């Protein structure tokens, strides 16, 4: 066997091991019902339990003393339509299974498609509740950039997503405040960059 063939075989073996390891982390489950866009009831080994999708936040539809928020029902419907038609599995983050409220947090897969990521990419959820569990944070942030750039669903309403914290701005007054804050932040960044460029130009000119 040539050196090239040995290297190729070693590479393929390593890739196979990595794939097997990734798949081994996933635990098969079955769908019971969608509670809302980011919370579901599933069955694992015949027992029902509630899971929350990790690193995502959909608008509220069933939170006590909270009105139904825009796109909350659409998010729940999308989640249910997606997970009710495919083999499901869950994956836990390497940094822990629970949040501070003792809710079980998972990455949910429909076949090989991560449901968490699809919700964000379609604009039904925002990236949120970022604590120590961050295994797939980059993929979700990439998906959010796509949804925001294309103004999909929750991103189609100016100021609806609370970008200075968690959750959503339900009232028009709150959305106006959010829009004003984002614009003020943008203008502040422009001023900082402009001042930095002026300083750089002056330093360059002084060298001539």
UniProtKB/TrEMBL annotation:
Listed EC numbers: 3.1.31.1
Entry superkingdom: Bacteria
GO molecular function, one term: nucleic acid binding
Family annotation (InterPro entries): SNase_OB-fold_sf, Staphylococal_nuclease_OB-fold, Thermonucl_AS
Transmembrane stretches, start-end: none
Signal peptide: 1-24
Domain TNase-like stretches: 25-157
Keywords noted in UniProt: Endonuclease, Hydrolase, Nuclease, Signal
PANTHER family, A to Z: EBNA2 BINDING PROTEIN P100, SERINE_THREONINE-PROTEIN KINASE 31
Protein name, per record: Thermonuclease
Species the sequence originates in: Macrococcus equipercicus
């Amino acid at each position: 066997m040539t050196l090239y063939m040995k290297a190729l075989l070693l590479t393929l073996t390593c890739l196979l091991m990595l794939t097997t390891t990734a798949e081994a982390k996933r635990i098969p489950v079955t769908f019971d019902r969608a509670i809302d866009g980011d919370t579901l009831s599933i069955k694992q080994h015949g027992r029902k339990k509630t899971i929350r999708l990790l690193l995502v936040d959909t608008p509220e539809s069933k939170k006590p003393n909270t009105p139904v928020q825009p796109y909350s029902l659409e998010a729940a419907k999308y989640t249910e339509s997606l997970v009710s038609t495919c083999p499901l599995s869950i994956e836990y983050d390497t940094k822990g299974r629970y949040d501070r409220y003792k809710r079980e947090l998972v990455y949910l897969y429909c076949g090989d498609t991560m449901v968490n990521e699809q919700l964000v990419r379609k604009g039904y959820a925002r990236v949120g509740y970022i604590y120590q569990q961050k295994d797939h944070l980059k993929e979700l942030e990439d998906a959010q950039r796509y949804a925001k750039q294309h103004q999909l669903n929750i991103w189609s309403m100016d100021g609806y997503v609370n970008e200075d914290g968690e959750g959503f701005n339900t009232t028009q007054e709150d959305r106006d405040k959010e829009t004003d804050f984002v614009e003020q932040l943008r203008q502040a960044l422009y001023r900082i960059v402009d001042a930095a460029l002026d300083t750089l130009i002056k330093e360059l000119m002084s060298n001539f």
